[in-house]
Structures are given as structure tokens and as C-alpha cells.
Amino acid sequence: MIADRRPVLLLVNFHAGRFTGGAAVAHVIDELTLDGEREVLVRQTPAEFSGDLDWIRPGRYQRVVVMGGDGSLNSVINAFSARGQLPPLALIPAGTTSDFARSLGLPRGSYRDAARIARDGEISYLDLGRINRQFFSYIACFGAFATVASETPRELKRTLGHFAYMIEGLRRVSTIQPIRTRIHHEGEVCEEDILFGAIANTTSIGGLLRLPSAQVDMADGKFEALFVRAPANPLEVPAILNTVLAGRLDDRNLLFFTASKLELEFDEAVEFVADGESVGKLDSVCIQNLHRALPFVLNLKRDS
Q: Does the pLDDT value for residue 79 go beyond 70?
């Protein structure tokens, strides 16, 4: 078999929550070039890059390795998707929570270990999400705490890590308001007052909410949809949120189901977040599961 001589593209978010500096990048490059046969090109992630993105060309790279968090991966997916076919992607987790990496079981404590998977791993095909015209890897959400990741100050993330999200979330508890939501799914419509809604393909949301791994298949063509209903008595809100955080999905105030496509409508535009990044204020959304459309480097080869 003819070896793939195309370069590997390493995209680094130097401002990621757990990024530890230039030495970490050097370690990753050492691992990626261990066999002496790979050329590695290093750039900033599209969200951080201020110049021309003409280097984003489908088919040019054998693999694209992202060193950053969930938002970094999201920016790469959207940048390449806007220009054609997605290349095989790999992730070196360096974000504050790295939910996507958690769900996939990628090493979050060792850049070298993650780089070995990026180098030697095999390509799997995961489901990809689309919200209107934008893509996401694992979650689109709205309502209570949805914007915590995108609005928490960067320096607070770097200093306190995941704890920064907890602080920001607690600060917002008193401001939670129900959102009138019409949910269109499989030909039926239900109308509810919702505190929080998430359409996800993950076992971890914000590092706090965990979905049972037995219920989540990241390549089955379906999302897990979770909606938290607003109670008649506002004093019940903390108890409901505790139920959600405990992963008890059978509570009467929760609406939980799987879907390959659903549409949401709101009386007023609400802020939507995908993979921790703002999508903007929207009064209607169409969310679709693109079955096995995300080529992703995962398991180490057995002979490595």
C-alpha cells in the first residue's frame, strides 16, 4: 500500500482553558513525527486566526489534529465544511471541560497520549449535527446555563478551569426564566415552558450533567433530546436542577427522547449555543443528525 505523503495539519488554540504553553505543542509535534515520515504544519485554529484561511483546503491533509477544546473543534468543523468535505479529524484535549473528549474516552491528562492516538488511531465515522446552517460535534442547547461556557471570562477559565463554570452557573440561578417552546417531532407538536433544552450526542454536558453511556451511541443517527420543564412553583427550580445534575431522567419535569430531526419555535428569539460557542439569537431552529458524517480518529491500531 502506498503511504499517504500529504502533511498533517495541527491547529492550536493557544488560549484554550487548559493549554500549558509552547512546550506542549512541541511534545505533540514530537509524537506526530515519530516515524520521521510525516510533515506537520502548525496553525492557529480558525476561530483564533485573523488572516486568510486559504490553507483550509479539502483533500490537502491526511489528518487535521485540533489542540484545544470543544469550541476549537467546532470552529474547525465549520471552517472545513464551508469549503467542502471534512478531513479526518483528531483531538488533543486542551479545553476547560472537553466534553467531546470525555464522551470518546480520549486522554485529557496527557498531550502525548492523545497525540499517539491522533498519529496511530483509526478513522471512525460519528454523527454530525446541524443547527440551521451551522454544524456542531456534540450539542446544541438553550436556556438556563446554556451560555455559561461562551460567556465565562477566558482568564477565569485558565485560572480555575472547570470550577469557573460552576461559579458562573451559580451566579445565574436567580435569573432563570422559562422559555415558551414549541417542539416539532415526528409529526407531532408539544408546547411547553422550558428552563433548559439540549439536543446532544454526548455523555457529558459541561462536565456536570452526565447521560448514561448505555443510552448514548455517537454513531446511531439519533440525538438525545433533553428538555427541563418549568414548574408551576418557582421554588421547585433548584430541586429540579439537582435532579438533572444527578442524571435522573425519569422525573416528571423532564422531557427526554431520541430524535434524528426536530424543529423548535419560540415566541421570542433565544440565545443558542453549539459546542460551547454562541450561534446567536434565534426564534426558530431546525436541528438534524447527519448520520456518520464526521470522520474522526479514535481507537489505536491493534498492531501499534
A: yes
pLDDT surpassing 70 at residue 110: yes
**The amino acid at 247:** G
Exposed/middle/buried for residue 29 (C-beta within 10 Å: 0-12, 13-18, 19+): middle
Q: How confident is the model at residue 48 (pLDDT cuts 50, 70, 90)?
A: confident
294: pLDDT strictly greater than 70: yes
Q: Which helix (H) or strand (E) holds 76?
A: helix 70-81
Report which of 202, 217, 163 is spatially closest to residue 74, judged by C-alpha positions.
202
Helix (H, G, I), strand (E, B) or coil at 178: coil
- Pick the closest to residue 220 from 135, 125, 123 (CA basis): 125
Domains of the chain in start order, with CATH, are 8-127+293-300 (3.40.50.10330), 136-292 (2.60.200.40)
Amino acid found at 121: G
Rg of the chain, C-alpha, whole Å: 20
Residue of 103, 104, 110, 28 whose CA lies nearest to 66 = 28
Strands (E), 3-44: 8-12, 40-44
